[in-house]
Amino acid sequence: MITIKKPYVITRNKVIMDYARVYCDTPEKLLKSALFADLMERFIEKTASRGSSIFAFLLETLPKIKRDDLPGQIVNLLRLLASYCSEEIIAMNRDFEPVLSRREELHELVEELYNFWRRFERFLYLEAPKRQEATNSEIHGVQFIKSNEEFKNLVLYVYRRIAENISGHNPRVYRQLPSGANMGMLIEQVDWMCPGLYGSLSQVPFIRLSLVNPPVILYPRSNKRKGAFEETGILTPDMLRIDPSEWFCYPVKVGALTAFIFFHQDFISLALSLSNLFETARYEDIRGQKPDLIMVFGLPGQGLRSETMFYDDVDNNIMTGLVTYSEEVDYFGYFKKMALTLHNISMLKKGRLPLHGAMVHIKLKDGCEANIVIVGDSGAGKSETIEAFRTLNTEDICDLKIIFDDMGSLGVDAGGRVAGYGTETGAFVRLDDLEPGYAYEEIDRSIFMNPDKTNARLIIPVTRYNHIVKGYPVDLLLYANNYEQIDEDHSVVEFFNSSEEALDVFRSGARLAKGTTDENGLVHTYFANPFGGPQRREIHEKQAEFYFDYMFKAGVRIGQVRTRLGIRGFEHTGPRTASAGLLQILRSKKN
Fold first, then answer.
1. Residues whose CB is less than 8 angstroms from the CB of residue 414 and which lie 6 or more positions away in sequence, other chains included
2. What is the C-alpha separation between 2 and 189, in angstroms, rounded?
3. Contact present, 124 and 180 (Cβ < 8 Å)
4. Which of 70, 294, 461, 509 could in theory staple to 528 by disulfide, Cβ–Cβ 3.0 to 4.6 A?
5. At what angle do helices 499-508 and 537-554 cross, to 10 degrees?
6. CA distance linking residue 178 with residue 218, whole number of Å
């Protein structure tokens, strides 16, 4: 049975709209809509509870109106103001003369109502007709984008028209503020090869196209990830039981794997932010197909002993992630890291070695080039060191490609070389650790999360999908050491003499925690990667020994780079010095 979604939902400071059912193409329809009436009710309630001057102004100028009728009366007034100026309305209805004669206060009410709307995180979706094949879909995408633009323009026009009719003149400055949806999605019911265990997910619509109106600034309830992902040996249909009318599915490519990420509507802002991080899966990856990975985010939690768990579904050859509904998991890191945990365990099964790190291809103008992998846990400085390459005051670099920015894997390619493969097309980086001004240079395509708090984050596209799945041979493999100073005993880059020496450092996974998780001080994580390796330590250990021995025999240089990111005062200079040291080594290869 197909469930029907509500025309709109207002939840946790989010407005989620089915555009086909809240469709408005005129100011009159917008101001008569159920959504606008609901927003007015909430706005009046908020001003009344705060005892604001706006509410006092309404009581003074509309004394005959009962409290319960006040929102409806204001809506009626705004409907008139969308078509007539104040003098014309007074001529038609003298009851509005007291409120219309106090223009400045009425204008302030309209401004506050407009800001009230804009402070919501706003999401719009449109459902496309169900298809039988992967053709004739372009028209729905065009209609969706056009609908989003029309809605944005209509809201802006109504606001300006009302303001002009109150003040009696046009403004001298027009600010094109984002007044429509922050994000949008075209959804579609698609039949996929759904094993019986996952039957309750079969009616959840898929996101086929997403739209972002940057800069998007989001304020999730939580600001860090806590604990580890536990494995469960049992998964039953009851544990996955959901109401499909409150759920969506975002199909993405995590590296070469296809992941169906099901999420409750209350987590829509985090889920749609995946558009800046992962490649969206194609229709051919969904219809009639079984995914490699499934994540269900926002479960009621029946039968689950932990908020974040995963299940190795051997019978169906699917890795499944389970995240229960709570404010604790209202953080983008849970979406990202659960998907990567499932990916990593899948890679171990396929004979690859997952790495928590970053990889970059660098080519200099003199012809030198190298593929560098930097391994490290959250806050170790791997991404920051690579980003520092962009800001170095040098003209030597003629090409810089990001292969992966947080998680990847090593495999042996067709030529017998150890190659690096990525998972994400974007990066989820700490705002505080980026070079000053960099985030603002990229503001037109960024998603910001809690920019006013510690561990503020930025999600930004950094590479293209073909680069992360191509496979680039590894030239340098380095551990990101963020806790040791550079002195006569410790150089910026230090190389190991044997695979055993290298494995000891990587296996220890030492890092000075920076508050990006619930850890503090000098901590140790197996291979700097809590996402898959510790859960499959025996097989991971065998893979690590194989790849490290293989690389040493093949002449791949393995060492550590001291980023000093965890040392106070070196948050910016540390990664810059590290990247400069790497460039020097790269230049020395030619000499």
1. none
2. 10
3. yes
4. 509
5. 140
6. 14
Q: How far apart are CA 493 and CA 372, in angstroms?
A: 13
Token pair of 180 as six digits: 């429509």
Integer Cα distance of 395 and 136 in angstroms? 47
Q: The tokens of 297 are what?
A: 């985010």
Shortest CA distance to 224 belongs to which of 462, 430, 529? 430
Q: Other CB atoms closer than 10 Å to residue 168's CB: what's the count? A: 10
Residue-wise pLDDT for 553-567, tens only, equals 999 999 999 999 888
Q: Where are the domains of the chain?
A: 8-126+134-167, 183-349, 353-425+462-588
Stretch 86-104: mean pLDDT, rounded? Answer: 91
Banded model confidence at residue 123, pLDDT cuts 50, 70, 90: very high
Structure token pair of residue 531: 């996402």
Is 441 strand, coil or helix?
helix
Scanning 350-396, the segments in alpha helix (DSSP H) are: 382-391
What is the distance between the alpha carbons of residues 540 and 272, in angstroms, rounded to a whole number?
32
User: What is the pLDDT averaged over residues 427-439?
Assistant: 67
Cβ burial 540-556 (10 Å sphere, 16+ → b, else e):
beebbebbbebbbeeeb
Beta carbons of 412 and 418 less than 8 angstroms apart: yes
Determine the Cα–Cα distance for residues 79 and 155; give it in Å rounded to an integer: 13
Q: Which of 354, 464, 357, 320 is nearest to 401 (CA)?
A: 464
Residues in the chain: 591
Q: Which two tokens stand for residue 242?
A: 């959901």
Q: For residues 89 and 94, what is the distance between their CA atoms, to the nearest angstrom?
A: 8
**Does the structural domain 353-425+462-588 have CATH classification 3.90.228.20?**
yes
- The dihedral through the CA atoms of 78, 79, 85, 90 has a sign that is negative
Percentage of the residues of the chain whose pLDDT score is greater than 90: 67
Q: What residues form DSSP beta bridges with 207?
A: 187
- For residue 336, give Cα distances in angstroms to 267, 278, 358, 432, 443: 13, 9, 15, 20, 21
- CA-nearest of 547, 524, 252 to 373 is 547
DSSP annotation of 365:
T
Place of tokens 């969206």: 280
> Is the pLDDT confidence value at 440 over 60?
no
Q: 94 CB contacts (<8 Å, ≥6 apart)?
A: none
Task: Give, in order, the Cα–Cα distances in Å from 576 to each of 97, 390, 469.
Answer: 65, 10, 28
Structure tokens at 93: 């209805």
Query: What is the C-alpha to C-alpha distance for residues 459 and 404, in angstroms, rounded to an integer?
Result: 14
DSSP state of 487: S
pLDDT at 134 over 90: no
Q: Are 583 and 392 in contact (CB under 8 A)?
A: yes
